[in-house]
Specification:
heterodimer; A: mainly alpha; Formate dehydrogenase/DMSO reductase fold; two-stranded antiparallel ribbon; 18 helices; 2 strands; 70% helix; B: 273 residues; alpha+beta; Alpha-Beta Plaits; four-stranded mixed sheet; two-stranded antiparallel sheet
Chain lengths: 415, 273
């Protein structure tokens, strides 16, 4: 039925099977849109947020998708700026995943603000001292860059490519892609960092507050670094999942190996920096606020215990580093999959802790720890962009030549 | 001491609350809500969802009867001056749309409801929980709308609000004083909570003006500020002769003694806004 749109030389499942596969993601999108409608028209009373939990699931989801979407900027940086040519075989997919992640972030932000129609005030009445202002500007610009990076791939669709204008436009855009990749890397360094700064500058919240250099708290640098380290892991993880679903090998092992090795070393250096930051914060910064390090974990409920720090730095930090930097281990497919999965979980846990724990813990001596469980509307609107992303990736895979090595790795027998 | 002429000198309005006088009656909360059109919902039992610009906390010394002592702790917005008193209050510096601002001529932290787009970053930044989000549109009981204060705009759903030190009262007093070519007198500008307090626990005025009572009171040896060591630089001072109450004003690692007074913690290091 849609065979004219499918790239040449590759095999795709039947249209019926594809449509059936899209039913669950589509249902989740509809569910999420209904929840978004409730939030927009009835207000944020549809959530379980409160005056203690002004930042909650959505802000975590925002930070998490932007962190894991960092694979687009860092892979682009390695491919076009550093010149790692092998990565041309995964860059399309990295851009696609990044595009979905950043679209998700924008959508969640649009639901999260109390007065959505005033969202543009962040640009119009911008406060240059606010980390969120920097986030808003860089995020919007980078989403535009990602759209520009995605466009040539879109124009490579068999039917669109038959139009000479689109063919030439796509070709010419490929030629200048290095400029956009460099711009994307520059913008990403700032908005990833600013997201780190969001809690780092909260000097009234000892759990989130960090010292730093000039106007940037250390979390500014840690966020950029961790996104560069774990973003490519999410790209590889998504790619592996795509391979599992399609039952095909789509990217050669040497490409995975190279990206995994770089991610491993990035993650390793990040974890060293993260440990140093945690130690400095615990030993030097925290006591000046009158707290002890263990008070942040002991006086809490199980949601915010010390286990979360061990999970973040040990299980999801040191362990994937050990696997990814060692050639023999990262070449083992099970260990490799475990490592990239743990790295992705680790960066999400980090964002979770930095958003949730400063909100939950009491600062005034007569305040209480606060617990928060998201409402179904919050879950639905958080799942919405994930399901939407799955649909976009599925459609792109079906109709666009996302993986340059697919034909070589999966030759189609001519009948 | 500021030596500029009184009429042109920047003010630094602040409050001194004598905790040993506060009986916890809640008049300040009622007066504040009434004065500032703070909406009331049918069910106000969840205090994490209800707006109380000044909130009276009840704290105890944690001892068993008969040694139990109670202190009522009113907490309005602290109108923080921020690190080095430069106006970068925790909330002001983070608001992305400049919807909350520090007025250097009064020291008051304002909130522009029609500019706030409800990101709630300021709430995340405030360690005092002095900021409230309008989770619902305000619904006033029948006829109550007619008795709302015409000087304070009611807030719509989706924006943050907080204590303004009854700034509209200052505007009125200032207009009157301007016409009469003089400075605003101490008693001309008083907050609703100050005037409603039956035990006279709240004193309000210009912290920099030696003629105002707060100027002397803030230097009392019983004076302390909430979370002094975070360098938020609040403009609300508390008085108490009870050491456990003073200690409750801040966090201390076990070996430390409570602060000797406001400003005792030197600001060290640099970073952040």
């Amino acid at each position: 039925m849609d065979s004219a749109l499918i790239p040449e030389g590759v095999e795709r499942c039947s249209f019926k099977r594809f449509t059936l596969g899209m039913i669950i993601p589509a249902a989740l999108v509809i569910w999420g849109l209904y929840a978004a409608y409730l939030c927009w028209f009835k207000g944020l009373n549809q959530t379980n947020m409160n005056d203690s939990y002004g930042f909650a699931l959505w802000i975590w989801a925002d930070l998490a998708v932007i962190a894991v979407g960092g694979g687009a900027f860092f892979t682009g940086f390695l491919r076009y700026v550093v010149g790692k040519d092998e990565l041309k075989n995964i860059i399309n997919f990295a851009v696609l995943v990044g595009f979905c992640c950043y679209c998700s972030a924008m959508l969640i932000l649009a639901i999260d603000i109390g007065q959505p129609l005033r969202g543009w005030f962040i640009f119009w009445h911008a406060n240059v001292h606010s980390m969120l202002t920097e986030v808003a500007f860089c995020l919007s610009l980078y989403l535009t860059v990602l759209a520009i990076e995605y466009l040539p791939l879109l124009l490579e669709n068999r039917k669109l490519d038959q139009v000479p204008f689109f063919h030439n436009l796509g070709h010419n855009m490929h030629e200048v892609m290095a400029v956009f990749a460099a711009t994307g890397a520059f913008l990403s360094c700032f908005h990833q960092g600013s997201l780190g700064g969001v809690t780092g500058v909260l000097y009234g919240r000892p759990f989130g507050m960090r010292e730093g250099i000039f106007i940037w708290p250390w979390t500014f640098f840690l966020y950029t670094w961790s996104a560069a380290a774990c973003g490519p892991c999410f790209t590889m993880l998504s790619c592996k999942i795509t391979e599992m679903i399609t039952g095909k090998k789509l990217v050669k092992d040497n490409v995975y190996n190279l990206l995994a090795k770089i991610s491993g070393w990035m993650l390793g250096t990040y974890i060293v920096a993260k440990i140093a930051d945690t130690l400095w914060w615990a030993i030097v910064t925290v006591p000046t606020t009158g707290f002890t390090f263990m008070e942040f974990y002991n006086n809490s409920n199980n949601f915010h215990g010390l286990w979360i720090l061990i999970l973040e730095i040990g299980v999801c930090g040191l362990l994937p580093v050990a696997i990814l930097v060692r050639k023999k281990w990262r070449e083992n497919s099970s260990l490799f999959f475990t490592a990239i999965l743990l790295a992705v979980i680790g960066v999400c846990v980090n964002r979770w802790v930095m958003v949730m724990q400063p909100m939950a813990m009491p600062v005034m001596t007569f305040d209480q720890w606060v617990l928060y469980l998201p409402s179904w509307q919050e879950w639905a609107t958080t799942i919405l962009p994930v399901a939407g992303g799955i649909i976009i990736i599925a459609l792109s895979y079906r109709y666009l030549p996302v993986f340059p090595q697919e034909r070589e790795l999966n030759p189609v027998e001519k009948s | 001491m500021n030596t500029e002429p009184k009429e042109t000198r920047a003010k630094k309005f602040g409050m001194v609350i004598d905790l040993d006088k506060c009986t916890g009656c809640g008049s300040c909360m009622v007066a504040c809500s009434s004065e500032n059109n703070v909406p009331v919902r049918k069910d106000e039992s969840d205090k994490l969802l209800s707006a109380t610009w000044i909130r009276v906390y009840r704290i105890t010394n944690g001892k068993e009867f008969p040694d139990t002592e109670i202190c009522y702790f009113p907490r309005p917005c602290m109108h923080c001056g921020g690190k080095n008193d430069d106006g970068h209050s925790p909330c002001v510096s983070v608001c992305p749309a400049t919807a909350t601002d520090y007025d250097h001529s009064t020291g008051i932290v304002s909130q522009i409801y029609t500019r706030c787009f409800g990101c709630r970053y300021c709430m995340a930044a405030c360690p005092y929980h002095a900021r409230y989000f309008n989770w619902w549109d305000p619904i006033w009981p029948a006829k109550i709308e007619e008795s709302l204060s015409p000087d304070v705009s009611p807030r719509m759903r989706g924006v943050v609000e907080k204590c303004s030190f009854c700034f509209h009262r200052y505007q009125k007093a200032k207009d009157k004083a301007y016409i009469e070519e003089r400075d605003v007198e101490e008693m001309e500008y008083q907050t609703a909570c100050t005037q409603a307090c039956p035990s006279g626990a709240i004193t309000f005025g210009d912290l920099d003006n030696p003629d105002h009572a707060v100027y002397t009171l803030k230097q009392d040896k019983r004076a302390f500020r909430l979370l002094e060591r975070l360098h938020t630089n609040p403009k609300v001072y508390y008085l108490s002769a009870r050491s456990w109450v003073k200690r409750a004003g801040d966090n201390y690692v076990s070996s430390e003694e409570p602060t000797k007074g406001p400003g005792a913690y030197k600001l060290e290091g640099h970073g952040g806004h």
